C-alpha cells in the first residue's frame, strides 16, 4: 500500500512548500536586518511567518511522505491554532494602537513577549490533548475535543477579531471627521501629523483584516472536514476535498508575504530601498570599471581621499534634509494646506 502522496500532487505541493518557506524566511530576515521594521506589530508578523515556515518546511513534507502519519494531525492542529492565536494577537495590537494610542507603547512594552509566548504555548498545549486518550478518534473524548477546537479555538476568536476590526474602522472614521474640524490654518500642522498617523493605522488594520479573511477562506475546507468528523458524518466530505484543502492551505500561506510587501508601508519602503541599493551598486560597479583608474600604489591615497570626501558631502546633505522643519514642506496658502491634509487621510 502506498502511504505517500501521488506524484502529480507531491511535486507541485513540494514546490509550493519551498516557495512558502523561502518567502517567510525573507520576511523574518528583513525584520531582523532593518531597524525600521523592528516594531511590536512586525514581531507578530514574524510569528505568523514562523507558522508559515512550519507549514511549508515541516507539515507539507511529512504529509507528502506519509499521509497516514499521526504527526500530520498534530502539526495541522498546532499550525491552525497558532495562526488563530497570532491573528488574535496582531488584532489586539491594532486595536490598542487605534483605540488607546496613549497607552499603546506602555502596554505593548510590558506584555509583548507574554502575548507572543501565549500565542504559541496555547496551540501546542491544546493540540497535544489527544495524547491523554491515546489519539483514539472513535472515543467521545475526541468528539468533544473537536467541538472544542471548532467553537473555542476558531469560531469565538474570529467573531472577536471581526468585532475588533469593525470597531477599529468606526474609530478611524470618527477620527477623520474630527480632523476635518481641526483643519484651520492654525491647527493644520497638528492635523497633518495626526492625519498621517490615523491613515497609517487604518491601512495597517486593512492589511491584517485582509490576511484574516484569506486565512478563513483557505482553511474553510479543513474546518468543514473537522466538523463532519466531529458529528460522525465523514461521508459528507468528498475524497477530493482532502487534496483540494492542501492547495487552498498553500494558497493562503503563499499570499501572506506578498501582502506584507505590497500593502504594508514599512515593508514596501524597505523593498524599494533594497532594489535601489542593488541598482546603485550595479551602476557604481559599471562606472568604476570603466572610469576609475587602477588602484596602484601611486594613486591609492588619492582615491581614498576622494571617496571619503564624497561620503562626507553625502552625509552632510542627508543631515540638512533631515533637519528641515515640517512647516517648510507645507503650503502657506490655507486652501492648499487643507487639500494637503486631505491627501493624507482620504485613503483610509
Automatic annotation (TrEMBL):
**Record-linked Gene3D superfamilies:** Rhodopsin 7-helix transmembrane proteins
* Matching Pfam families: 7tm_1
Q: What residue ranges carry the coiled-coil annotation? A: none
List GO molecular-function terms, semicolon-separated.
G protein-coupled adenosine receptor activity
The protein's UniProt keywords, in alphabetical order, are: Cell membrane, G-protein coupled receptor, Membrane, Receptor, Transducer, Transmembrane, Transmembrane helix
Name the domain of life this protein comes from: Eukaryota
Q: Where do the TM regions start and end?
A: 12-32, 44-64, 70-90, 111-133, 145-168, 205-224, 244-263
Task: From the Swiss-Prot or TrEMBL record, state where the protein is found.
Answer: Cell membrane
Q: Does the keyword Metal-binding apply?
A: no
Concerning PROSITE patterns, the annotation shows: G_PROTEIN_RECEP_F1_1, G_PROTEIN_RECEP_F1_2
Where would I find the G-protein coupled receptors family 1 profile domain in this sequence? 23-260
Among its keywords, does the record have Nucleotide-binding? Answer: no
UniProt membrane topology term: Multi-pass membrane protein
GO cellular component terms, A-Z: plasma membrane
GO process terms (BP) = G protein-coupled receptor signaling pathway
The family classification in the record reads:
Belongs to the G-protein coupled receptor 1 family.
Full protein name: G-protein coupled receptors family 1 profile domain-containing protein
